[in-house]
Amino acid sequence: MATAESTALIDVGILFGAVALAGLVANRINQSVIPFYILIGMLLGDYVLGNIDFPALLGTDLVPHGAELALADTDFVHVSAEIGIVLLLFFLGLEFNLDRLIASKERIGKAGVADLAINFGVGLLLGYSLFGSFLAAFLTAGIVYISSSAIITKSLIDLGWIANDESDAMLGTLVFEDLFIAVYLAVATALVLGGGAVGEALGQIGVAVGFILVLLLLVYLGTEWFQRSLETDSHEFVVLRALGITVLIAGIALSIGVSEAVAAFFVGMAFSSTDHVHDLENLLEPLRDAFAAIFFFWIGLSTDPSLFLGVAGLIAVAAVATTPTKLISGYLGGRIYDLSERRSVRVGLGMTTRGEFSLIIASLALSGAGTALPEPIAEDVYAFAVGYVLVMSIVGTTLMQYSSAIESVVVPRLEAGIGSTSPSSDD
Amino acid sequence: MTVYESDLPGVGKKFEVELEDGERLVIVTHNTGKREVYLKANPDADGDKLFEVSDRLARKIGTILEGAYFQPVQAEAVETMLSEDTYLEWYTVSESAEIAGQTLEEADVRNRTGVSIVAIQRGDDLISPPTPETVLEVDDTLVVIGEREECAEFETLLGDEV
Prior knowledge:
The structure holds two protein chains of two kinds. Chain A is mainly alpha-helical. Chain A has one domain (75-419): Na+/H+ antiporter like fold. Helix content of chain A is 79%, strand content 0%. Chain A contains 20 helices and no strands. Chain A has helices spanning 4-28, 33-44, 54-58, 66-69, 75-94, 98-103, 105-131, 134-145, 149-159, 166-193, 198-221, 223-229, 235-255, 260-272, 277-301, 306-336, 341-351, 356-367, 375-401, 403-419. A five-stranded antiparallel sheet of chain B has the order 1-2-3-4-5. Chain B has a five-stranded antiparallel sheet with strand order 6-7-10-8-9, with helices on one face. Chain B has four helices and ten strands; from the N terminus they run E-E-E-E-E-H-E-E-H-H-E-E-E-H. In chain B, 20% of the residues lie in helices and 36% in strands. The model of chain B has no long low-confidence stretch (mean pLDDT 84). Classes of the chains: A mainly alpha, B alpha+beta.
């Protein structure tokens, strides 16, 4: 008989094999990999595979019950998913360019504030009307506000938009969102881990702010130390030291109730002012992608698709409400960047994609189940977020692919509308 | 020529080079080292992807463009510009040349064409400056100085079939 260790290894092998296959399928049909990683996780988990009674279906006892085959949410998967979150945010920090933000602070600021006010605002209203609690509304607002840097950046490259002017507006707005999500996650984590009680949450927020201030001080004063920490010719040592520093600080943060993701963001930012940025990007990118894939798979594993039935209406309402809000805020962002009507429409189309960060907020909601949020609401928020991301990641990618058809319909009307007030100089 | 440089967070860097006729060459350098090269018909147009190459190949192509392996030189440099419109040229006197066998005074080159003959290379000898009595012989190499049209005028005196 197989020992426990060997089945654990088989499980991990199946996990990677399944994720690799899902990625292949996604690539074939020109879709983002993220929804496919989630779906395959859902299929292979307790809720789907685990509920299939193969002996009864096939009328023979020779095949095992699905529950024996289903992949469990083991410590390995959970911790790997956690590392995935840490590395995603670490990269955000690593690529966060403060100089760039300051250099074009006016445009990024205006486009970012428009994006924030419209989408976060609508998200708050939507969340409150759907779930009837402030914390759930706050989490929903984050889920519908944050666009997916990973999917958008990849689509920009695949479609060749990266060479065009719309990429500046999109990446600029994403920089603003990245900065916002760092602050947002710190507050949201404190609220959730604070157990929902206002007094305790305030205490947690105090701890979070204190920890972030310490990290900022580290970023500001510690550049030389971070620089020296990676002075080595060995790629192996660079990877090990970077992981050692990042994961350890993230872990310490989590142990005192501060968002591990935010800690990782600031560690990334600290490394971004050293000479090692390029090395780190090259060396850690495959690691980040592998762990992020496990994170998406884990999201799928933890999702009970039957809960989708209960929240399908909410997902539909949210998708219908927040696709136009991103289209509008993206369009406004494009205009703030002095882009033509056509390119501004493209910015809107691209920004509709939600992805990894919405899922990080979803996993946060789940961790507050039974404490900060009543269990049914936490599960609903989680299922809502997963379903919403599945829909919006595919909607966003598809909108970008069919942008030329959409532009040919929308742009003449926009130009006609604009033309009546001021002559348009666009192509 | 202007080169625009911008950061692409999470991707790399973008360079836009102004070409002639308003075209723009866009080079996207990925953090992975990959280069993508696009051409825009004008600053507002969409970029058409021309090609993408690996870091190694990109460096090779860059070195070739830079001229490290082959520097084209002007073929058979027979003229040198002294200024915007003044040329220093040299011609060989052929048998069919109208002025072959004449002295400089007889040929009256300066008045007829405007160019000055500043030196004559005859075999291993250099006659510089030539005198009015110097006879122009077949196979002499004449070094002349003058404007573009004057040089062209002089070429007709030589009767060369170009």
